[in-house]
# Entry
Amino acid sequence: MDAMIQYYMEETEDMLQKAEECLIRLEMEYSSTDVNELFRIAHTIKGSSQMVGYEDIGDIMHKIEDMLDGARNNSILFDQSIVSLCFKGLDMVKKMLQHKKEQGSQEMMDDFINDATRIKEMIEAFIRANKKGGEKNATEESAKGIVSSLLNKKPKGKNRFYITFFIEEDAPMVSPVFMMILKTIGEIGNLVYSSIGDSYFSELSRDNEIRTFDIILCTDIEEAELYTYFALSYVERINIVDLSRSKLEENDYCFSNGDDISYIIILRVFMKLYNMLFNESKELNISKEELSTIESLYLEAANACGRMKDKNKISTFIRDFNELFLHILKMCDDQWNAEEDFCSNIRTQMVELTERAYNYTKGKHLFRVFKAKKTDFVNRLRNFMDMVDKASTLIILIDLSSLDILGETEVKALIEMKRQMEFHGIETGVIVDGYDARKIINIFDSIKPLEEFHLFKTELDAILGVLYSQDSFHRIMNKIKDVQYK
# Structure
């Protein structure tokens, strides 16, 4: 090894050891002497590395030097984030130095250089985010901060995206990563929404608590290009949702589209069919008269599906719905050997289709869901009940899973509202799950002599429990028996 290189190696290793000792002391308490010593070491290693041709080491030490210079002249507030970044940078320098000493592979060195680049970007972003005062640029960024500055700009661009950024766990600091993201946003479009505000960047003690960042970006850039722009250091992954009107219009819901009647007819067919085929007995004994009724129900349901205005959205459901009926007709044919396993499979398919139908319709047609919060849930529930369309609603599910207890006043209010809904022919189901479920269930058990509530663990359990119970079957069928197209 060249004598000059050998001397450089020995001196640099000694200085790195002294730098680590300074950092350990700075972890315990601030000392301007240690900060100045660190700066001197960084400056010396930078210069000597450049002199022997180790520009890669010199570059990362240059960034550390800049950060420490800001800390010692008070243009950057010194905190443990600086200590963390220094440790990260010096550790990388030690690895690079050892690799050069052992004359390791270029491939490994390239990996070290890539890691060093990420650390340099982090330090640069940290300096930008935490520099006090400074001259304003030509755009005169708002004194409120970078987030406010970006939000205050008028949105431009044909595309709009909701993007979630997930930050790597080993990122020494998160705020510089967010700064890099915001800088990129400013270069390619406009910020419409940000899950963090300017205050975040002044709350460095909380820096590592947040590992996700949500934004809405308005831009002319297409989605496929965004992945390149946001492939930033310490960004582990991103999730992009296209909010452009052309992408979202298929989810539009029209309040007056008339599909309520179609869903009611399909539900009526399902309930009649389920009750006919699977009520109590596992055996299948279908008379010719009942077979004729099933065929009539199938035609009624097929007609309802065909008249839906939103049928394109549920085309797969309609296809599976038709296939199920064809299987049932075959099963009921005198020549078909309907074994118990086949009957069980039909029943399972009906339950699965019921779940899918519920997911299509909940909150829109037939089924309403209210999720209670711990504060003022009774008044919120009353307002919700008042706004419900009583004519088109069959079932209301009240989810109490977030509550840990029910008071006497709340229980009385629930009884009152349940009876009001029954007057309008609306079934009520209560969902109770979670850590405090047993306490809530005990309360409902204690009032059974006065009023019985149907309790369930999930929304699907509630829908199946209400639809396919005999009492609910008769009440719901009585309400919808005369529904038909005008």
